[in-house]
Amino acid sequence: GILHEDLRLLLETSMPAKKKKALLGVADPKIGAAILEELGYQCQTGGVVAEILRGIRLHFHALVKGLTAQSASKAQLGLGHSYSRAKVKFNVNRVDNMIIQSISLLDQLDKDINTFSMRVREWYGYHFPELIRIVPENATYCRLAKLIGNRRELGEESLPALEEIVMDGAKAQAILDASRSSMGMDISPLDLINIESFSSRVLSLSEYRRELQEYLRSKMSQVAPSLSALIGEVVGARLISHAGSLTNLAKYPASTVQILGAEKALFRALKTRGNTPKYGLIFHSTFIGRAAAKNKGRISRYLANKCTIASRIDCFSDVPTSVFGDKLREQVEERLAFYETGEPPRKNLEVMKEAMVEASEVVAEVKRKQEKKEKKRKKREKRRLEALAAAAEEVENSVPEENDVGPKKKKKKKQQEPEAESEPEAASGPEENGLEEEAVPKKKRKVTAETDQEEEEKKKKKKKKKARDLEED
Fold first, then answer.
1. How far apart are CA 131 and CA 128, in angstroms?
2. Where does this protein have compositionally biased stretches of type Acidic residues (predicted)?
């Protein structure tokens, strides 16, 4: 209902107030209604206007002088690009493609680590079969297999290292006792080297999986903080990955989000006319596991509704925060308590009002921090530019100084000439003609000649002394 300022300015400058009764042809009825409401110009919309505008657009290069069809097509393309850039706010930190790839890789790593750990257990179990019963965890088993190696070489000195891995003194002592009375076969050193190498690879994969999970948690807090606060990072990432993007997930209704991931069971139920599934990927949430068997369907429906709200808030908010996710999580907790105890939960309106107040405070704080960062960045940029300008000025000043060495010497000579002129006028004529300048080099020559004679005399004296010394010897 608000007319764009550029369009308003164009209409007011092109059509004075006296011609308000003139008809304007507008293709969009909404624009026509807005022009009539804001400026009072009568607008006509319909098929005739659309055809006229289409003809003007088609023959625009012929109607405007100096405009070719090629330049008009380039202008249209540039306008389309600028419009798209203005409408689509691309933020590098809010890219959900990275979440899709990381959760897919996380699932694949879980399968691979499980398979490789079972391979290590089978491989090392031929040599030390009792270790599987004492330590059932895969990662701990791989660490112990790498540490122990040949069980016959395990002694009391290895007990602190075993306790450090197992985190239990009784288990470490049991491993030591079992190694002394084990029924396993002997193993060659080459086989042990391969087992230890494979165990280290499995451990490195487990470490990378932990790093990838931290990366996924950080990305989810940037892209979908409300959804991750409500249902968890892993389940939220699986929902985004299954939907294709956060925008697609925000477009889904709550009934679709509820059974997202259970499509096969849904179509089988529709085909056999059986009971449709109650939940899909959201079954991995803790809320459904905590609910009673009779309330699982109800809580899954309620949770899907809240997940839809959270995904829409994350997708369409300028500064996403986890405030709404925390409030929605509190609502689900209250609904669980209502199913168990009958205590009535708070109304949605009250919770959303509280969330709006808190979210506005958080957004204001984030904007203040962003402004501070922007100011600091501008100051750094300004200092850098000033430093570059100062360096450029120094370079420019140093170049003329090197080039002006000759002229400076000339200036010195010119300064000496007036000093010579300022001497007493009683000076003789040859001095005025510049003969005085020759006197200075003559004196210098006399001084140098005297120094040369003294050096020669010193050399002769030294020679005489040497000759006397030789004669005495």
1. 6
2. 393-404
